From TrEMBL:
Transmembrane segments: 76-98, 110-132, 144-164, 170-191, 203-222
Lineage: Bacteria, Bacillati, Actinomycetota, Actinomycetes, Kitasatosporales
Keyword Transmembrane helix attributed: yes
Record's protein name: DUF308 domain-containing protein
Keywords: Membrane, Transmembrane, Transmembrane helix
Amino acid sequence: MSIHPWVTVEPPDSRGLRNISIGGKTVGSAWSFRELRKILDRLGYPEDMDMEDPASVHWRGGDSETWPDRPWRRRAIIALMVAGLLVSAVLHLLIGWPDVLGALTFAQRIVGALFILLGALQGVAAVAALDYWGRRQFSLSGSIILIGALIALATDSLLVFLWLQEKEYTHYLLAFVPLWFWSVWALYLIVREKPWNEIPHPSRFAAGAAAPALLTAVGLVYSTMYQPTSAPIHFALRAEFGEPQKDSGLPFVYIPLKLYAKNDGGIPVYIINDNYTVHGTTVKYSEKGDWLEQWKTDTEEAEVYAREDRKDVISSGHFYGPGSWLESGEEYSKETVVRLPKNSEYDSIDVELQFDFMRKDRGKIDTSKFAVPRRSWSKNEEGYYCPPEACGAYLVYSGRVRHNNNLVNVTRGRRYVTAFWAPDVAPTVFISSFDFKRKEEGERIDEAEMEREKVRYGHQLAFFKTEIPLAGLLSRSSGS
């Protein structure tokens, strides 16, 4: 019979795992007496070896009956740790990926990339959890789990804070609220183990672990606060009437009209609604000069010898069209014709050019749906129909809008941008949670919410107006 080296079974650690050494060299670890027998069998020890014989086995910190491991508890901790870290990793990827692909600014893309990086770190932490609550073959596994739990707690706390501002239901709520409680539990569990004691330079490791969180915070503040505020928005609008043309065959005069717009600002914009309207105005005169009091009913203009009598819409239409956009420095012009009777009684004509636009660094519009007009008077337009006698007639443009910072999207309900246009009324724009396709009976748009969302998504209005005397314009006309 061959002589085998002396077997030493060390005391159980905090998890119940006992190291096994032979001749002073560690050969494995066991959770139970059965695992110990398997290790010895693999090393060639006889199956009938007397485990209670001190000459063969030396038991430290307990005997052959001392196996405090509770496998169900250990496996439950592993399952909860791995599940929480993986779910948190997926949440980080869902937050970061849209910003990496679609964010307008470099800073927002960096923030998205950082969220993906943090998600990847949590994926590594999920693998480390298998080792740390297993046989602990890697000294850094506990510290990696600590980083993963800290990342989850920081991100989920931020999401809960943002959600509490408006308390709207979102499917992500079912993820980040339970994850917040999970992260508190996971952090308590791993801190109690003090994993930093197993690394040579814990202070350097802590500084390295804090760097991603600091970069994320700086990038988030820059992309959501400083950059959108610092980048200017300016529109240059012009409109001018050309030389009228007469047609001997028809009792009309044709007045060319040139419209022009340029995005002079530093940020691209979406055109939500636009409109040009040409008015013809007739005026009443008074030689006494006693009509200055009209300012009480007309706060825009007041004259001593003249008073506006009637103002008619002569021509109206879209200029560029809802759902289009202008990049920074891009310009667009349009030429059209205004037709008037030769014997027109208008004293003057004017043109008003209006642009409702939204900053592209604040949000993204689903233009494929928004740019398609719906007719409010058509019963075939599901959700958008309204009886003309009650609502009038409008073209309705509506579509989903998403914030360029995806943290806002995951903590808010859906938002929609809607524009109404008709040739005889001022164009209107709404940005709110109101969905025309799913509206309920009696549901109305929340005015306070609408104004708040307009500010959040960077809605602005550009307006230009010019007016000229019709007599002077017609005196320049050519043709017979």
